[in-house]
Design brief:
- One of its GO terms (molecular function) is UTP-monosaccharide-1-phosphate uridylyltransferase activity.
- Belongs to the USP family.
- It comes from Lotharella oceanica.
- This protein has 495 residues and is of the alpha/beta class.
- It has 2 domains: 3-189 and 244-321, Spore Coat Polysaccharide Biosynthesis Protein SpsA, Chain A (Alpha-Beta Complex), CATH 3.90.550; 338-494, UDP N-Acetylglucosamine Acyltransferase, domain 1.
- It contains 11 helices and 28 strands.
- The protein has helices at residues 39-58, 76-85, 133-140, 143-149, 165-179, 217-225, 254-264, 325-335, 341-359, 392-398, 466-469, and strands at residues 7-12, 67-71, 96-100, 103-105, 107-109, 116-117, 120-124, 126-128, 154-159, 183-188, 198-203, 210-215, 245-253, 283-288, 307-311, 362-363, 367-371, 374-378, 381-384, 405-407, 412-416, 420-428, 430-435, 439-448, 453-456, 473-476, 483-486, 490-494.
- It has a 7-stranded mixed sheet, sandwiched between helices.
- A hairpin with a 2-residue loop joins strand 6 and strand 7.
- Helix 4 (143-149) runs antiparallel to helix 7.
- It is globular.
C-alpha cells in the first residue's frame, strides 16, 4: 500500500452504452443494484480509499491522487455533467482532468479514399481512432511530464466497466515495484476463442529481437498456427488457454513513460481492420478507419525495458460489461463468460462472498437463474464499499470473529463506512449500513427480515429504465427493516 501513495489513475471512458442497449455513457451505468452506484462513483471511492491510506503512509494529509479521464465527443459533456451533478463523487475538482479524444477521417476503400458523410456529401465521415490516443493526449496535455516532475511513480490505466479492477490495484502496483517493471499488465485465465487479447512473448526469427506485448484475439490463432502450435489456441489441462488474457488494466512507471512520450509524442502504431464485401477483398462493407491501441505501447520501448504481467484469478479482478443480452447469451455458450450487465453485477457479489469465505465467514452458496436469456449466478448479495475495506487485510480487521458470522442464501449485506465493525452476525434477510466518518458502528447479533430480491422485468417494456431492462431484473427494496444511515459521529450498535 506504500506505493499506492505515489500513483495516478487514467480511466479510458470514450464509449457510449449503445451496444449494451443503454443510451447513456457507460461510466454512468450502475455497477450493481444493491448500492446503486455508477461505475464512475465506484472508481472515485476506490481512489479516495487509496488516497486515505496514502496520506497515512506518507504522513501527508494534503496528498491527492490524480484521476485523468479520456473522453470522446460522444461522452465529454455528459461526463462533465455526471461529475458536477455529484460533486465529483467526493474527489476534489482539481484532482480530476478530462482529456478529449478527437475522431479521424474514415476510409472507404483499399486505395485510402476518404469517405464522406452519407447525410452530407460536403462533410468528411469521421470515426474514433482507438484508445491508443490516450498516450498522445497525456503527452500533449502535459500531464505525463507534470506527474513525473511531481515525483509520481505509477500510472494505472483502466477501462470503463470493470467493477472489480481496484481489487487488483495494490497488487499490480506492488508487483511492478518489486520486479522493477516499466509496464505491468493485469491478466486472467482465458478460454480459447474468447474475444480477449493475450499477453505473449515474441521473438523475431531473423533479428532475435524480443517483445512482450498483447496479441489481439483475432490475430492469436493464425500466429500460433504459423509458429509454435499448429493446432492453434487450444486449452491445457486446466481447460484454459496457456496464453493469459489481457484485461487492459496496465501499470506504467511514470519517469520512463514521460521520457518515451517526449521522444515519440506518444504516437502509437496504427492499423486498419476493414470488413470486406466478398472474397476478392477489394471493397469494404462499410468505411473503416485507422486505429491504434493503448496496449501496443511496448512497441515504442527499447530492448532493455522490463515488461511483464501479473495474473490473478478472474473472480477477483475482472468482470466487464461488454455485451447486450443476445450477444451475451451467445458468448456464454461459446466461452462461459457472458460479460453482460447481469453477470458483471453477479461477479461483484461473488467476489465479496468468496473473500468473506476465505476469512472464515459462513456464506450460503449461489444458484443459477436466467435473466434475458443469460445464465446468472444468484445468491447472497454482498457489497462492501471501498471506505469500509479496500483490501483483504483491511476486511479481516473489520470482521472481528468471522466464524461468528453467517449469511443465508437470499440475504443482502451492504456496508458503507470506514468505522463499521462486525462482532457477530446471523443474517437472514437484508442489512444496509451507511455511516459517516466518526460514526463507529458495531454489528452484533441476529437480523431477520424480508430480503431484497431480484424481480424479473420485461426487457421490451420501454417504460422500465434501461439499466434494469439490459439486466432483465430489478431489485425489490420495499422492506425498510434494518436500513441504517448514521449521519453524525458517535457510537452505535446494531441490531
Amino acid at each position: 500500500m506504500t506505493e499506492a501513495a505515489h500513483a495516478v489513475f487514467v480511466l479510458v471512458a470514450g464509449g457510449l452504452g449503445e451496444r449494451l442497449g443503454f443510451e447513456g455513457i457507460k461510466v454512468s451505468l450502475p455497477s450493481d443494484l444493491l448500492s446503486g452506484k455508477p461505475f464512475l462513483q465506484l472508481y472515485a471511492e476506490n481512489i479516495l480509499s487509496l488516497q486515505a491510506k496514502g496520506r497515512e503512509a506518507s504522513n501527508n494529509p494534503d496528498l491527492k491522487l490524480p484521476l485523468a479521464i479520456m473522453t470522446s465527443g460522444d461522452t465529454h459533456e455528459r461526463t462533465i455533467k455526471l461529475l458536477e451533478e455529484n460533486n465529483y463523487f467526493g474527489l476534489d475538482a482539481d484532482q480530476v482532468t478530462l482529456i478529449q479524444q478527437e475522431k479521424v477521417p474514415a476510409i472507404m476503400d483499399r486505395t485510402g479514399s476518404i469517405a464522406v458523410d452519407p447525410e452530407d456529401p460536403y462533410t468528411v465521415l469521421t470515426k474514433p481512432h482507438g484508445h491508443g490516443d490516450v498516450h498522445t493526449l497525456l503527452h500533449q496535455s502535459g500531464l505525463a511530464s507534470k506527474w513525473a516532475s511531481e515525483g509520481r511513480r505509477w500510472i494505472m490505466f483502466f477501462q470503463d466497466t470493470n467493477g472489480l479492477i481496484f481489487q487488483a490495484a495494490p497488487a499490480l502496483i506492488g508487483v511492478s515495484e518489486s520486479l522493477g517493471l516499466q509496464i505491468n499488465t493485469l491478466t486472467v485465465p482465458r478460454r480459447p476463442g474468447e474475444a480477449v487479447g493475450s499477453i505473449c512473448h515474441l521473438k523475431h526469427q531473423e533479428t532475435g529481437q524480443e517483445l512482450t506485448i498483447n496479441v489481439e484475439y483475432n490475430q492469436l490463432e493464425p500466429l500460433l498456427k504459423s509458429t509454435v502450435s499448429p493446432e492453434g489456441d487450444v486449452p491445457d489441462k486446466s481447460g484454459f488457454s496457456p496464453y493469459p488474457g489481457n484485461t487492459n488494466a496496465l501499470v506504467f512507471r511514470v519517469e520512463p513513460y514521460a521520457k518515451v512520450l517526449k521522444e515519440t509524442g506518444g504516437k502509437m502504431p496504427e492499423f486498419v481492420n476493414p470488413k470486406f464485401k466478398d472474397e476478392s477483398k477489394t471493397a469494404f462493407k462499410k468505411p473503416t478507419r485507422l486505429e491504434c491501441m493503448m496496449q501496443d505501447y511496448p512497441r515504442l520501448l527499447g530492448r532493455d525495458a522490463k515488461v511483464g504481467f501479473t495474473q490473478l484469478e478472474r473472480w477477483s479482478c475482472f468482470a466487464a460489461v461488454k455485451n447486450n443480452a443476445v450477444d451475451a447469451a451467445a458468448q456464454h455458450k461459446k466461452t462461459g463468460f457472458a460479460e453482460s450487465a447481469s453477470t458483471a453485477e453477479s461477479a461483484i457479489y461473488r467476489m465479496f462472498r468468496q473473500k468473506l469465505q476465505l476469512l472464515g465467514v459462513h456464506v450460503a452458496e449461489p444458484t443459477q437463474e436466467v435473466f434475458n436469456g443469460v445464465p446468472t449466478w444468484v445468491g447472497p448479495k454482498v457489497i462492501l464499499s471501498p471506505s469500509f475495506a479496500s483490501t483483504f487485510e483491511e476486511m479481516g480487521r473489520k470482521f472481528l470473529a468471522p466464524e461468528s458470522v453467517q449469511i443465508s442464501k437470499d440475504s443482502t449485506l451492504h456496508l458503507d463506512g470506514r468505522d463499521i465493525e462486525i462482532k457477530s452476525l446471523d443474517l437472514d434477510g437484508s442489512l444496509s449500513v451507511t455511516a459517516v466518518p466518526g460514526a463507529r458502528v458495531v454489528i452484533d447479533g441476529k437480523v431477520k427480515n424480508t430480503p431484497w430480491q431480484f424481480t424479473p422485468v420485461d426487457a421490451d417494456d420501454k417504460t422500465i429504465p434501461e439499466p434494469l431492462r439490459i439486466r432483465g431484473y430489478d431489485m425489490d427494496k420495499s422492506s425498510k427493516d434494518h436500513v441504517y444511515v448514521f449521519d453524525k459521529p458517535g457510537t452505535y450498535t446494531i441490531p
